[in-house]
Amino acid sequence: MRPTSRPRGARTFTLFAVCLLALGTTAASCGDQPSGVSVGAVQRGAVAEIVDAPASVTARAAATLTAPAEGTLRSLPVGPGDRVRAGQIVAVIDSPPARERLAQASKALAAAKRASGGVGGVNLTGASRRTDRAAQEAFEAARAAAGRIADPATREALLKQVTVAERQYDAAARAADEAIRAVQRGVAGLSSAVGALGAAQRMQAQQAYDLAKSTVDALTLRAPIAGVVQLGGVTGGAQTSLSDLLNAAGAGGAVPGPAPAAAGGASGGAPLPGVDGAVPVGGQVGAGTAVLTIVDTRELGLLAEVDETDVLLVTPGATGTVELDAATGATYETRVRAVDVLPTQSSRGGVAYKVRLTLGPGKYPDGRAAPTPRPGMSAVAHLRVREAADAVTVPAAAVFSADGGDAVWAVRDGRATRVPVTVGVQGQDVVQILAGLGAGERVVVRGADQVRDGQSLS
User: Fold this and answer.
1) pLDDT (tens digit per residue) in 260-300
2) How far is CA 289 from the centre of its chain?
3) What value, to the nearest 5°, has the Cα angle with vertex 420 and ends 417 and 424?
4) What does the alpha-carbon distance between residue 398 and residue 409 come to, in Å, rounded to a whole number?
5) Terminal Cα-to-Cα distance of the chain (whole angstroms)
6) Degrees, nearest 5: CA angle 441-444-450
7) What is the mean pLDDT of residues 33-38?
8) Nearest Cα to Cα of residue 409 among 361, 458, 370
9) Which residue, among 442, 334, 354, 335, has the nearest Cα to 398 in the 3D structure?
10) Which residues on adjacent β-strands are paired with residue 402?
11) What residues have CB less than 8 Å from 93, skipping those under 6 apart?
């Protein structure tokens, strides 16, 4: 049975040899040797194995700043393309509803702090139950509002904040209940029970005030990172804060959303065709409307997608080159920083792993400097995963599969002899032979599928 050619295209990456060996070949023209068969000598040389992976350019960091409450964009002291420093004021939102909620919460907190414990005719149990019901209704409304948020990460973060606030209140409420039971058993004074109940009420009022205060403070948007300004956001979904949820719960439990777009302005949703999606000064915003995004471009990188069949070859520190669709002919330097532990579904439908790379300077073949890429640009990374110097090598076409292993046709005493070999580093044009052949031997380098054992060869 004639052996089949070794499948070279089964891998998802392209194999590339550092050095193309000039093997002397001879076309057969005597005996029964087919005309398509060529013979060459086993050589020594360097060979490299390359994994090709689709990639995209990434920024060091990015942060989208959103309106914390409904209102209007009062000022925007920065413009698109401006560089800002961390902590710099980049926008101010005017929100009368948020300031009104803060004023109401401040009055409620002051009243709770002034409340004193008169003992005559006080129904401690009834007062405690009313406080607990009010708190429970507020927490349930906030939790229900958070549950209706589409983004899983945002929803989970807000639910955790609700849980923390609820636990803090429960601790104060338990202390009040214990004090009331102690009075009822006659083992404590009425004043201590009233004090414990007042503490729970003050806790509830303090939490409401803190939430309202944080919303008002957040109306002044500051850059969380240094970078370049881009108006609008980079995601489609609006983001909501815990204070928005509790404020909405107090207004009936509706999840806050973007306000209707002002004339010539933008809302938190997708802009209409032909309309600039950026919010202008004086334009309406809703809670979660994206105002601007800051992108840190000081250090660009790459996020590559490596198939599961190849990822074990990719290790941190491996180097390679990158080609960008936007800079035809240019080559950029790269190095593997990390390989993700958990997989993701590849763009081709299989299992892949994210590989994080550095992105170095690029050059054109004539030596000109290549342009600086922008985040999100498409690329292909050629990662050098294995190398061998002064290796015994044969052309890749000389190796074929037979009996579950690799083999070549060696020319011995003028006849074809099938020789099992062990393959090492695999290049696109040549492969390393670890065992089975030595330098100087002659092998079939083309037309291996036309050769049979014992056939006469030149």
Assistant:
1) 333 333 344 455 666 677 888 988 888 888 899 999 988 99
2) 22
3) 135
4) 7
5) 23
6) 155
7) 71
8) 458
9) 442
10) 405
11) 67, 68, 69, 71, 72, 73, 74, 219, 220, 221, 285, 291
Helices (H) and strands (E) in the chain, counts: 5, 23
Residue 248, SS3 per DSSP: helix
pLDDT of the residue at 199? 65
Cβ-contact 46, 74 below 8 angstroms = no
Helix, strand or coil for residue 371?
coil
DSSP string, 15-59: ---SS------EE--STT--TT-EEEE-EEEEEEEEEEEEEEEE-
> What residue type is assigned to position 296 of the chain?
D
| Structure tokens that stand for 452 in this block | 């049979």
CB 88 within 8 A of CB 223: yes
Taken in order 86, 89, 93, 94, the sign of the CA dihedral is positive
Contact call for residues 253 and 281 (beta carbons, < 8 A): no
SS3 state of residue 174: helix
Residue 323: strand, helix, or coil: strand
Could you give the residue ranges of the DSSP H alpha helices within 225-356? 242-250
pLDDT digits (tens, 9 = 90+) for 351-389: 999 999 999 999 999 999 999 999 999 999 999 888 888
Predicted model pTM: 0.58
CA R_g for the chain = 36
- The CA-atom distances, in angstroms, between 252 and each of 246, 248, 256 are 10, 6, 11
Interval 81-125: pLDDT, tens? 999 999 999 999 998 888 888 888 788 778 777 764 444 444 445
223, 233, 238 from 266: Cα distances, Å:
21, 11, 13
What is the residue whose two structure tokens read 């004193």? 116
Three-state DSSP state, 259: coil
Which residues of 163-311 form beta strands (DSSP E)? Answer: 220-222, 227-231, 284-285, 290-296, 301-307
Q: Are 95 and 70 in contact (CB under 8 A)?
A: yes
Tell me which residue of 34, 51, 24 sits closest to 339, measured CA to CA.
51
Phi, psi of 185 (to 5 degrees): -85, -5
Question: Largest Cα–Cα distance in the chain?
Answer: 123
- Counting residues of the chain whose pLDDT is more than 90, the rounded percentage is 26
Instruction: Provide the 3-class DSSP secondary structure of residue 208.
Output: helix
Residue 325, C-beta contacts closer than 8 angstroms, at least 6 positions apart: 377, 378, 379
* The token pair that represents 84 in the structure block: 């800002």
- Residue among 169, 56, 181 at smallest CA distance from 124: 181
Supply the DSSP symbol for 236: S
Q: Order of strands across the sheet with 83-84?
A: 61-66, 290-296, 227-231, 83-84
